[in-house]
Structures are given as C-alpha cells and as structure tokens.
Amino acid sequence: MEKLIRIAHILSDMDFGGAETVAINYFRHIDRKKIQFDFIVHEGSMLPRKDEIESLGGKIIIIPPYKRIGRYLKELKRVFKNNNYTIVHSHINTLSVFPLYIAKECGIKVRIAHNHSTAGKGELKRNIMKYILRPFSKLFSTDYYACTEHAGNWLFGKKIFKKKGVIINNAVDVEKFKYDADTRKELREELGIENKFVIGHVGRFVTAKNQRFIVDIFYELQKEKKDSVLFFVGDGPMLEEIKYKAKELKLEDKVIYLPSRNDINKIYQAFDLFLFPSLYEGLGMALIEAQIAGLPCVASDAVPKDAKICDLMTFQNLGKAANYWANKCLELSDIKRESHADEAKERGFDISIEAKKLEQMYINYVIKDCS
Fold first, then answer.
1. Claim: this prediction has a pTM higher than 0.85
2. Residue 168 Cα to chain centre, angstroms
3. CB 163 within 8 Å of CB 138
4. Which CATH number fits domain 174-346: 3.60.20.40, 3.10.129.10, 3.40.50.720, 3.40.50.2000?
5. Among candidates 127, 121, 290, 272, which has minimal Cα distance to 198?
6. Where do the domains of the chain lie?
7. Radius of gyration (C-alpha) of the chain in whole angstroms
C-alpha cells in the first residue's frame, strides 16, 4: 500500500477541548507518510493549532456550524466529494449522525462514530438533543469507537459495543507530563505562588465541568488553609459567571484564571492538588495528565473509573456538601510528588504506542476495501 490515506476528522471546534486534543495527539504520533488528517470544524473556531497542523501536512477545513443544518450538510457534501476520503472519523458524539449520513451518500465506505462523552445533570436542552439523536447513532456508522466502555455503552448500547465496539484510549505524550521538580520551582516563582497551596482545575467553563461547585469547595478549604489559591485553566461561556461567583464570596484575590494554552504540561507542575467534580465525563483526560504529573486528584463519582491510573486518585459523591469535599482535599495536601508515567503506560495511555494501533486499524480498512 503506497497511496497516502487522507482521513476526514469531524469536530465541532478546534481549540483545546478534549476531543480535538485527542485527535491532535494521534495526528502528531501517527506515521504521516502513510496517513494524513483533515480536520473539518465549524466557523468561529479559535484554531490555536492551525500552524502546527499545516506544518505536519494536515488541513483545517471550515464549514458552517451544524445549527445551520442545511448549509452544514451541503458544505460537507462538497468537501467529501472534492477530497476523495477513504475514511470519515467523526468525534461529535450523538451529532455524528449528520456527517456520517452525508459520508454514506457520498459513497465513503468507512464511517467511524467516535463517542467522547455521555450525559448528566444540569444541561436540559443539550441532553434532550442527545437522547433524541442517540437511537440514530448506529444508522450510518460502520464502526463504533469510544474513549471508554462506559462511553461506548452509553451511545451505542452494551450489546452492540461489546460485539463491535473499539476503545480508543485518550492517550497522551507520557514523557511530556512527568513530574519535573525544576519546572515546578521555576513556574511557581514566575507566578508568585512559591509558598502557596495550589488547587488546580483544567477544563472548559461549561456546566458539565461544575466549576461553580469548585468555587464552593475552595471557599470552605481556604477557611482552614489560609495560604491556598485556586487556579482555573481554560476558556468557555461560563467564565464570567464563575468570576462573579468568586467575587461574591470575596475570593477574587485567591482565584487565578489562565486561558487555554499549549504548555499545560508545565502548569500541572505548579499545582499541589487537582480538583475535578464533573457532572459527567466520557473519561476526563485532564485527570490522566494530572496523575502522570504526580498530582493527588479529587474527582466526582460521575467520572468513569477508567480515569484512575494510580492511588493518587479518589472519587467523591457529588451529593456531598462542599465542606466534605474540602476536607478530602486537605487530607491529600501532604502527598509527596513523584511521576506516575509507568502506570499510565500500563493502562494504555502512552500515545506513542496507541497511535501505532490506530494507524494499523486505518490501514486495515483500506486493505480490506482493496481486496
């Protein structure tokens, strides 16, 4: 097989969210002499990785958002027909039904629906749409991928996913996230937090990430640990709401906001504890990265158990009060930092290994199609 395989990866946005980070990680480590990715994303995406993607031989193709469904489908059809894709790999969960329908119309034989999420409390309108579309998830898909068994069962059903599903781990560059004492010292000096107890959170400011509760937990925690500060890293529609809540609780001097960034591996080094009380998750990729960096992690019991790679991770009930969570955080405040890269590799989160597996799956599709 000598011909380059060019694959259409369907995403909503192209910023620093979970699904796009997974796709980019695989793109960086796959053999790009054999396989290239085109990333098809909505108008209005931030495109912080555009230069990197193009330097690696990939393309970003911008189309109207799916909310303008007529234009979205029409433009997708044009893109698919003009680029002769062998494979369409869609990462937009229940919404994958739309691009995969067009892919089938265009005669594309391999149509992958890849689920990265589930559903939970607090997002009524979004959840109604998810549950309406969920029964159609298998209608135009030829292959069923998910980040965990939990996510696969949720979208495709236990019977189908057990028989035909594939788990694609949200793998990362394990060496990049290993604990580094020198980086920690330098960054804490740069940020002026040398003598602080730093609670960290990485994620988009959306309902599912439950940042309002993080502020409540920190409010209780800082009563006991006066030298504590809270770091939020990310962007999103609820950012201003969270800032207002912190101000209302007179925490504005203790809460620090950093935008999404490429050097998040360094930011983990500056934290002392990672807080992640999500309302729901497909996996919770940030937790994998945080554990590799040696951070004790306190997550909600709505996070899949697959996210735990070592004993640094503890799950707490979302029904418990903020002061209960704060006390659990304080119990973990003196854990010695060390890397947990080996555990991540053992659990299948090493991108250098996982990318080769996906690469071979793509090649096998083409071989099968040609035979």
1. yes
2. 13
3. no
4. 3.40.50.2000
5. 272
6. 5-171+350-370, 174-346
7. 21
Bridge partners, 90 (sequence order): 10, 113
Distance CA 178, CA 312 (A): 14
As a CATH number, domain 5-171+350-370 is 3.40.50.2000
Assess whether the region 5-171+350-370 and the region 174-346 belong to the same CATH fold. Answer: yes
pLDDT in tens, the chain (371 residues): 468 999 999 998 887 778 899 999 999 999 999 999 999 999 887 778 889 999 999 999 999 988 899 999 999 999 999 998 999 999 999 999 999 999 999 999 999 999 998 987 777 788 888 899 999 899 999 999 999 999 999 999 999 999 999 999 999 999 999 999 999 999 999 999 999 999 999 999 999 999 999 999 999 999 999 999 999 999 999 999 999 999 999 999 999 999 988 889 999 999 999 999 999 999 999 999 999 999 999 999 999 999 999 999 999 999 999 999 999 999 998 888 999 999 999 999 999 999 999 999 999 999 877 65
